[in-house]
């Protein structure tokens, strides 16, 4: 399936979670067998082309795509989690949201020094989450140069912000607006 066919499988829910936001809902994409498989294949081709040794994904929708890409490539997956979920020693990073802040955590032993990690997530909006994940993975010793997303909201400028931090960004589908 082409990216345009995949776009048609994404449902837009207006005013969720608050007025003015057009929520790009992947539930309808991942519920479509051929659409899910094609999304994973596209992302895995991109990750292979840049020599990924492991995939990292952010909780929760990044786990769906990231883990499947890792399986498709036969490589490992690194979960970047919401706070308080991991049982062993963790490292964490706080980052700003539009209102308030959030935190990501990971097990620093889940990557080796210099290991080439590619970040995968469902959607890039402001880029805050992905920038924080890249910082955290680098703090753990990984080499992080690439981030892949199913959906880009280019009007929010997140991909450009990621590029400004030295990450190369590739996305499958664009949507105008927030
Ligand atoms: P950000 O840190 O702003 O790039 O946003 C990161 C996460 O917020 C994405 O991975 C999505 O899961 C979620 N998100 C933000 N905006 C939207 C939207 N318009 N539709 C669906 N998910 C969104």
Question: How can the largest sheet be summarized?
Answer: 5 strands, parallel
Task: Work out the helicity level.
Answer: 25-40%
Number of helices: 6
Hetero groups: adenosine monophosphate
Task: Tell me the overall shape.
Answer: globular
* Unreliable spans: none
Which sequence of SSEs, written as H and E, runs from N to C?
HEEHHEHEEEEHEHE
Beta-strand residue fraction: 25-35%
Question: How would you sum up this structure, described in words?
Answer:
The chain has 178 residues and is of the alpha/beta class. The chain has 6 helices and 9 strands, in the order αββααβαββββαβαβ. A hairpin with a 4-residue loop joins strand 5 and strand 6 (101-106). It starts with a helix and ends with a strand. Adenosine monophosphate (AMP) binds next to strand 2, strand 7 and helix 5.
Task: Outline the fold blueprint.
Blueprint lengths: L2 H5 L3 E4 L7 E4 L1 H4 L2 H17 L4 E5 L2 H13 L2 E5 L10 E6 L4 E6 L9 E9 L3 H12 L3 E10 L5 H7 L3 E7 L4
Parallel strand pairs: 3-4, 3-7, 7-8, 8-9
Antiparallel strand pairs: 1-2, 5-6
Helix pairs in contact: 3-4
Bound molecules: adenosine monophosphate.
């Amino acid at each position: 399936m082409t990216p345009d066919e995949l776009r048609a499988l994404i449902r837009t829910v207006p005013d969720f979670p608050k007025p003015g936001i057009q929520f790009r809902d992947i539930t309808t994409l991942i519920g479509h067998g051929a659409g899910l498989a094609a999304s994973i294949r596209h992302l895995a081709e991109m990750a292979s082309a840049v020599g990924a040794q492991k995939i990292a994904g952010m909780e929760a929708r990044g786990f769906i795509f990231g883990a499947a890409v890792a399986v498709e490539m036969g490589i490992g997956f690194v979960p970047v989690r919401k706070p308080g979920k991991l049982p062993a020693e963790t490292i964490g990073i706080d980052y700003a949201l539009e209102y308030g802040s959030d935190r990501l955590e990971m097990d620093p032993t889940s990557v080796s020094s210099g290991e080439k990690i590619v970040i995968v997530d469902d959607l890039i909006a402001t880029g805050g989450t992905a920038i924080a994940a890249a910082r955290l993975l680098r703090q753990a010793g990984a080499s992080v140069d690439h981030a892949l997303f199913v959906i880009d909201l280019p009007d929010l400028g997140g991909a450009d912000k990621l590029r400004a931090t030295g990450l190369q960004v590739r996305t499958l589908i664009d949507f105008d607006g927030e």
